[in-house]
Design brief:
The chain has about 325 residues and is an all-beta fold. The protein has no helices and 27 strands.
Length: about 325
């Protein structure tokens, strides 16, 4: 999220090798976009540094190095690669309650331009800092249930979660809370019996861009709020057959499950790439990426993964899992 989460073995780089395209499917769209893959990181055997349990998060530093949060079961680590996909180092994140350890409720990662890695331990309600060499620096606590973290220029962090009536919280790198903003979303009447559940009032993920823009999905409808300098500056509305609002299953033996929509927003110049994950969450299902320019929808295409980061050249870094988990980098082109 920081700018800023198959076909053969090993580390592969393809120039103009695979393309995913689709004609614009929304009324009035006349432009057609496609993706050309130019880098793949991931394999299913032979090299442990390239075998991922999952590509849960992707971050980039100022030199274009790639940081992959690999999370599943008891194996949690951040794998670092250079811009050409060469393995550089691994930052181990053992599970536990220690200062440099992560609990079993999940983690999220943000990366600073100098290569500082910020790990949000959701269960431990803390942020763990590592330097560019992967050395543990320190941690700071957050006093609420947080679901995601992002980096903003100026060594500032945004943490998502409901606290004191706001959902976005700005911290400096030393853990000082600078400001909280963003109103929680209203729970619709059909979910009124669950209205006291805090997590129904904000999404599980958000997106941010180097210019300081923050994009937050309303989990109950296809509407993205845009914040800058702690102020709501606009909204982008959309439509997708893949989008499904939050669902809560009926209680069974005292418990229930909540299913959240997954959507990412990445910015390049005046263009936004808004990607909706297929609600079936199946490996063989295609997701939809909608292209906006000046907040107007101009096209769409399907793709097998979820774009989680974008670089200064406008290349998309996607988490994919068709045959095995991998990172794929794409150049966006227009016919």
């Amino acid at each position: 999220m920081n700018m800023t989460r198959h076909r053969s073995l090993g580390l592969l780089a393809f120039i103009a090798a695979f393309c995913f395209s689709a004609a614009a499917s929304f009324s009035g769209e006349k432009r057609t976009f496609f993706l050309t893959e130019d880098l793949s990181i991931g394999t299913e055997s032979e090299d442990d540094n390239l075998i991922f349990a999952s590509v849960a998060s992707i971050g980039l530093d100022a030199t274009g190095n790639i940081y992959i949060l690999d999370w599943a079961g008891g194996k949690i680590r951040v794998q670092v690669f250079d811009p050409k996909g060469k393995f550089m180092k691994s930052i181990a994140l053992p599970q536990g309650q220690g200062p440099a350890e992560v609990g079993d409720n999940g983690a999220a990662v943000a990366v600073g331009p100098a290569g500082t890695v910020f790990v949000l331990d959701k269960g431990g309600r803390k942020v763990i800092l590592f330097d560019k060499n992967g050395t543990y620096l320190r941690l700071f606590k957050v006093d609420f249930e947080a679901s995601d973290i992002g980096y903003l220029n100026g060594d500032k962090l945004i943490i998502l979660g409901l606290n004191h009536g706001k959902i976005l919280h700005l911290y400096d790198k030393d853990g000082r809370l600078l400001e909280s903003f963003g109103e929680p979303f209203e729970v619709p009447s059909k979910l009124s019996q669950y209205k006291d559940i805090p997590s129904l009032r904000y999404p599980m993920l958000f997106s941010s861009s180097p210019d300081g823009s923050i994009y937050v999905l309303n989990p109950h409808r296809f509407e993205v709020s845009i914040f800058k300098d702690a102020k709501l500056i606009g909204e982008v509305e959309g439509r997708s057959d893949l989008f499904e609002p939050v669902r809560v299953t009926p209680p069974v033996q005292g418990g229930f499950s909540i299913f959240f929509p997954i959507l990412t927003v990445l910015k390049s110049g005046e263009r936004l790439y808004v990607t909706v994950r297929h609600r079936a969450f199946k490996k063989d299902e295609q997701n939809e990426m909608i292209v906006y320019e000046n907040n107007k929808r101009v096209g769409s295409l399907t793709l097998p993964g979820m774009p989680l980061a974008i670089d200064g050249q406008g290349r998309l870094y996607c988490s994919e899992e068709t045959d095995f988990p991998r990172l794929a980098r794409y150049v966006v082109r227009e016919k």
